[in-house]
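Q: What residues go here?
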C-alpha cells in the first residue's frame, strides 16, 4: 500500500518517496523487533540517533545496518542528545563519514534534558552551518511560524515542528500554529514528536502536513508491530482526506444528505 500517487509526490531533497511516514529506530527491545516494526510501518526513511545506535562506530557490537540495510532504507542520522550547535554539527559530520558521504540529516538541538524542548537559537545556528557545509537538513523545531520560516530561508529541506513534547504522546497541542506554518511554507512540513496514536497522525495529515515522523508512539506501544501497521494506515487516510477536501463545518445549519423535495408520502385512509 503506497502513501502517494504520481500526482501527489512526496519529495525530500530531490528524491521521491512512497511513504509519508518516517520512523525512528530507538526504544525497541532488540534489533529484530525494530526491523519487524519498520517493515510493518511501510516507512522508507528511518532516523538513527548517532550517539545511541551502532551503525559501525563499534565493530565489536551488532550494527543496525545488518537489520535495516542502507540499500533498502534512507537512513536519516539525527542529533538526539545534543544540546549545543557545535555538538550537533560534529555529530552529523561523523554520520556523513560513517554513511559514505550521504548528506540528508535530521537536526535537533535540545534546550532541556527533562522536557527535550528545542533550543531554537542553537538550532538556527547549527542549521546555517550545516547548510553551508552541504548538508540537506531536516530540522526539529518549535511550532513557531516565524522561526520555521527562518529555517526555510536558511535553506533547510524540510521543517519539522513538534506536535507536543518528545515521547509525551499528547498529540497535536496547537493545530492553529501548524496551519500557519503549513500555509506559509514552500518546503515540506512534517510533524515531529508527540504523536501518541493513529488518530494523531491522521489529524496532522488532514491539517495539510506533508508527513509525520514518530518513534515512541510505535516502539512504546504494547504491540509495536500492530501499531506500526495502524500508523501506516492512519497517514494514508489523513492524506487522502486532505486531498479529498472535507465538507465545511456548518454549526446550527443542518443540511440533510437526502433531498427533502419530492418525497413519497403515504396517503391517509
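A:
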Amino acid at each position: 500500500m503506497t502513501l502517494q500517487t504520481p500526482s501527489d509526490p512526496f519529495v525530500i531533497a530531490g528524491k521521491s518517496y512512497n511513504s509519508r511516514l518516517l520512523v525512528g529506530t530507538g526504544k525497541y527491545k532488540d534489533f529484530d523487533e525494530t526491523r519487524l516494526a519498520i517493515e510493518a510501518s511501510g516507512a522508507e526513511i528511518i532516523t538513527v540517533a548517532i550517539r545511541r545506535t551502532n551503525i559501525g562506530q563499534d565493530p565489536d557490537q551488532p550494527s543496525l545496518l545488518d537489520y535495516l540495510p542502507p540499500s533498502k532504507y534512507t537512513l536519516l542520522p539525527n542529533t538526539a542528545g545534543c544540546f549545543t550547535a557545535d555538538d550537533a554539527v560534529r555529530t552529523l559530520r561523523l554520520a556523513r563519514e560513517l554513511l559514505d558521504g550521504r548528506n540528508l540529516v535530521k537536526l535537533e538541538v535540545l534546550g532541556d534534558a527533562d522536557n527535550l524542548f528545542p533550543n531554537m537559537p542553537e538550532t538556527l545556528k547549527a542549521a546555517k552551518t550545516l547548510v553551508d557545509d552541504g548538508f540537506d537538513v531536516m530540522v526539529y523545531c518549535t511550532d513557531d511560524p516565524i522561526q520555521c520560516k527562518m529555517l526555510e530561508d536558511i535553506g533547510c529541506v524540510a521543517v519539522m515542528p513538534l506536535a507536543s513534547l518528545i515521547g509525551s504522546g499528547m498529540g497535536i497541542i496547537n493545530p492553529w500554529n501548524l496551519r500557519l506554518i503549513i500555509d506559509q511554507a514552500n518546503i515540506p512540513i512534517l510533524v515531529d514528536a508527540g504523536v501518541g496514536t493513529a488518530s494523531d497522525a491522521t489529524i496532522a495529515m488532514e491539517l495539510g502536513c506533508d508527513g509525520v515522523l514518530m518513534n515512541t508512539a510505535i516502539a512504546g506501544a504494547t504491540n509495536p508491530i500492530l501499531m506500526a501497521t495502524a500508523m501506516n494506515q492512519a497517514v494514508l487516510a489523513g492524506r487522502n482526506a486532505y486531498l479529498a477536501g472535507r465538507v465545511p463545518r456548518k454549526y446550527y445549519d443542518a443540511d440533510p444528505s437526502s433531498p427533502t423535495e419530492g418525497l413519497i408520502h403515504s396517503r391517509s385512509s
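A: Context that may help when evaluating the design: The CA atoms of residues 202 and 238 lie 4 Å apart. The radius of gyration is 21 Å.
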